[in-house]
Amino acid sequence: MRKTANFTEREWNCKCSACNQQVPHKMQENVMRNVQLLRDFMRKGLILTSAYRCELHKSEAKKAQVGQHGLGTAVDIRVSNGYDAARIIQYAIKYLGVQGWAYSKKSGFVHLDWRTTGIMTWEY
């Protein structure tokens, strides 16, 4: 069942080979709504390079506690330039309540999350 206008259920699913993308995502509905609002603001398609991550995902499996992706509160969005990255981060902080963010120029993505433990940012 589609919960957003422009994103399919598959786009929210784990993308790892361990689960073969068969684990249903556990994305929080408010996160999905916020990502849709972000897409509406950008007025162009957004590619989710990572959303929900199952417990077998290599990035989640090595953590002592479940990460933001594993909790369904984080997304990574492909960006092709720093301008788009800045627009996404600024809008997400100002209007969508994002608490965690990062930008990887080298890998070409922005991480956004709606953690409840306070504001956090970092570099890749």
Overview of the molecule:
The chain is of the alpha+beta class and 124 residues long. It has one domain: Muramoyl-pentapeptide Carboxypeptidase, domain 2 (2-Layer Sandwich), CATH 3.30.1380.10. The chain has 5 helices and 5 strands, in the order H-H-E-H-H-E-H-E-E-E. A 5-stranded mixed β-sheet has the order 1-2-4-3-5. Helix 2 crosses helix 5. The model has no long low-confidence stretch (mean pLDDT 93).
Give the tally of structural domains.
1
Overall outline: globular
End-to-end separation: 34 Å
DSSP strand (E) fraction? 15-25%
Uncertain segments are: none
How many helix segments?
5
Describe the strand arrangement of the main beta sheet, using strand numbers: 1-2-4-3-5
**Largest sheet, if any?**
5 strands, mixed
Instruction: Identify the CATH architecture.
Output: 2-Layer Sandwich
Strand and helix layout:
Elements: H1 9-12, H2 29-42, E1 48-50, H3 58-61, H4 68-71, E2 74-78, H5 82-96, E3 100-104, E4 109-113, E5 120-123
Parallel strand pairs: 3-5
Antiparallel strand pairs: 1-2, 2-4, 3-4
Helix pairs in contact: 2-5
In short:
This protein has a single domain (29-117), classed as Muramoyl-pentapeptide Carboxypeptidase, domain 2, CATH 3.30.1380. Helix content is 33%, strand content 18%.
